[in-house]
Structures are given as structure tokens and as C-alpha cells.
Amino acid sequence: MSSTHPLPPLLVPHRFNGPPRSGNGGWTSGALAATLPAQGLGAAVTVTLLQPPPLDVPMTVLATAAGATLARDGHTVAEAVYAEARPVPVAPVSATTAAAAEEGYPGHRSHPFPTCFTCGPDRRVGDGLRIFAGPLGAPDERVAATWTPYESAVPIVWAALDCPGGWASDLEGRPSVLGRMTAELRSLPRTSERYVVVGEQRGVDGRRTFTAATLYGPDDEVVASAEHTWFTIDPKDFM
């Protein structure tokens, strides 16, 4: 008996882009995680992106013994498995501190993909998430931002946890794209409530950068947390 079986196809609408021609890594990863039996809630899931997710193209989703795979034309785009360990949360900051940090968001000055669904400054309010994680300032190397969701779903939360991790690293000097993300969503955020996202860098190894991000609700409640692996790229290859 086959260890895989097909699920409904997955399509990344153009609205959920990261680079201009491919899907936002967090949104795509979350959409694949949401195909698992727990629908991406209550358990940590690791998604590995093996190639840029295409936009507006139905892709095959296969349930496997370990999780699920996403494929196009017989080539694997991403793989989802239940994680071996839960992400370790980034320490919280207050909403006031996070709002002040947004003023220093480096993406306002220089951004490899300014139309990114999560952090692109060129996205209008109510369309992109416009999460602008800025530095807290020395000696604290973390970044933080506030976020008030206008819609709430598993892929949206993965997207919200994506780029704040990236901006905790040197995206200006080392442009990078998401290669792997482990996320644990304990609950879905409520729309029209204010949340805080905090990100930090946890290591660098050659082309790889390791980061983390945590979404906090009132009273420093952990709503969701993630850890990421990024790979340096030439942005021109993704335009």
C-alpha cells in the first residue's frame, strides 16, 4: 500500500508573494502545514523549501507518513514534517518598545523585495501585513514590531513570523531567502487586537543564517513561535 495519498492542490495567490515572482516563504510553509491532520495548530511543524514556490499555479500536495510534500511538475517544492523539538521563544518586549523600534526598520531604507507580503513597505494597508521589525538598539540585538491582524489564518501567522526573523539578521548586507522554518502555533490571533513580534539572530554558518521570532499577545502570552534557516542569495535571481 502506498505511503502517500493526494490532498487538494495548493495554490499561492500572487498577493502572497515574497520576491516578486515567488511565494512568501512563511505563507507557503504555513499553507502546507495547514494540510496536516492538526491543520497546523497545537504542534510544531518544520517546513523545508527546496525551490521558490511559484505563484498562481496549482501544486500537488501529497500526505506522507511523516507529514506532507508540495510538488510541481514532479519536482518537490517543499516538505512538511512534525518537528522534533518546539521552537524556543524569543524573550518578549512591551508594545510601546516594539512600536518605537518600528521607526528604525531598515527596510524603509533598503529592501531586497519591497513588495513582500509580510514586510514590504510598498504594500498598502489592508493588503500586505506591513510588519516592520526594527532594532531595539545596543546592546540588545533583537528586532521588534507591533501587528494588528485584519485577517487570521494559519498561513497568515506563519507569514507574520517569517520576516521578523530575517530582519534580525543583516538582510541589507546579506540578502537572504527562507530555506527552512519550524513553527508552533498555540492559537490564532484575534483580528483588531494588537500583538508584538520579536525576532533575534541565533547564528551564522557560511551562507546560512539562523534566526527566531515569537508572536506575543496580552500579558506576554506566547501565541506562536518560530525558528528559521535563511540562505544568502543574489536578489537579481529572484526578480
Describe the protein in words.
By secondary structure, the protein is mostly beta strands. The protein has two domains: 78 residues, Hotdog Thioesterase (Thiol Ester Dehydrase, Chain A, Roll), CATH 3.10.129.10; 144 residues, Thiol Ester Dehydrase, Chain A. It is 13% helix and 35% strand. It has an eleven-stranded antiparallel beta sheet with strand order 1-3-4-5-2-8-11-10-9-7-6. Helix 1 packs antiparallel against helix 3. It is globular and about 50 Å long. 46% of the residues are buried.
Q: Strand content of the residues, in percent?
A: 35-45%
Number of helices: 3
Count of extended strands: 11
Q: Which radius of gyration do the C-alpha atoms yield? A: 17 Å
Mean pLDDT: 95
Structural class: mainly beta
Spell the H/E element sequence. Answer: EHEEEEHEEHEEEE
The strand order across the widest sheet is 1-3-4-5-2-8-11-10-9-7-6
Total domains: 2
Q: For this structure, what is the CATH homologous superfamily of the largest domain? A: Hotdog Thioesterase
Uncertain stretches of 5 or more adjacent residues: none
Give the overall silhouette.
Answer: globular
State the CATH topology of the largest domain: Thiol Ester Dehydrase, Chain A
Portion in helices: 10-25%
User: Under the CATH scheme, which class of the largest domain?
Assistant: Alpha Beta
Gap between N and C termini: 43 Å
Largest sheet: 11 strands, antiparallel
- Which CATH architecture of the largest domain is right? Roll
